[in-house]
Structures are given as structure tokens and as C-alpha cells.
Amino acid sequence: MSSALDAALARVEPRTPLAQLQRVWPGVVGEAFAPHATPTAMSSGGVVTVACDAAVWAQEIALLAGELVPRLNAALGAETVRELRCRATETAGWARQGRRGRRT
User: Fold this and answer.
1) Which is it for strands 37-42 and 47-52: parallel, antiparallel or unpaired?
2) What predicted TM-score, i.e. pTM, was given to this entire model?
3) CA–CA separation, 104 vs 92, rounded Å?
4) Which Pfam families match (predicted)?
């Protein structure tokens, strides 16, 4: 079943560098980071924008970029990624929690 699903996904997956990067991302960054950081854009020069759900995750990914870029390129089979630019998005964890505990 798994191989059939993988084959079906491979047929419908876009053939763009960003789509390929998004496919390998979770396996490269690991289960701790993957739920909090998603590559959302890639320039033709290999600069990848990574949307993170909190500033702390953006900082952690940025600090690990020197290790992650070679691992991403190895997973992609080409020197596609040159740089990671991490951005915290509006949906930071504290905002999703409804700012509980804050006094007004």
C-alpha cells in the first residue's frame, strides 16, 4: 500500500525545486523541527525562505543552517540550496493559544 501511494504521489507532485525540497525537508530537519518550520519559497539562486511558527524556531533553524544546507543538498542529489532565510510567521505559538494568562 505504501509503495502504491508513493508512486501515485510522485506522479502528481510538481517537478519544481521547491516541491522537491518540501518533500525531503521533514526527513532532513527531523521530527522536532519539521512541524514548526516549512520551506515556502526558493529563488533561482538557491535561497530558501523558511516560515517558522515562532521566532525561537526561526533562530534555531538559522543557527543550524550550516549543517542543514549540505544535508538538504545531499537529499536532493544536487547543489540546489545555498542559503536558508528563516522568518517567524504571524501564527506564533502564543498567538494560537489566545494569549492566555495575559492581563489586560
Assistant:
1) antiparallel
2) 0.74
3) 20
4) DciA (PF05258)
Predicted pLDDT at 90: 66
Under the banding of pLDDT at 50, 70 and 90, the label for residue 46 is very high
Cα 65 from Cα 62, distance rounded (Å)? 5
- Asked whether the predicted pLDDT for residue 34 surpasses 70, the reply is yes
Q: Residue 87: beta bridge partners?
A: 51
Dihedral angle at the C-alpha atoms of 94, 40, 34, 73, nearest 10 degrees?
Answer: -150
Does residue 100 surpass a pLDDT of 90?
Answer: no
CATH class for the region spanning 15-96: alpha beta
- Cα distance between residue 28 and residue 62, in whole Å: 14
**For range 75-92, the mean pLDDT:** 89
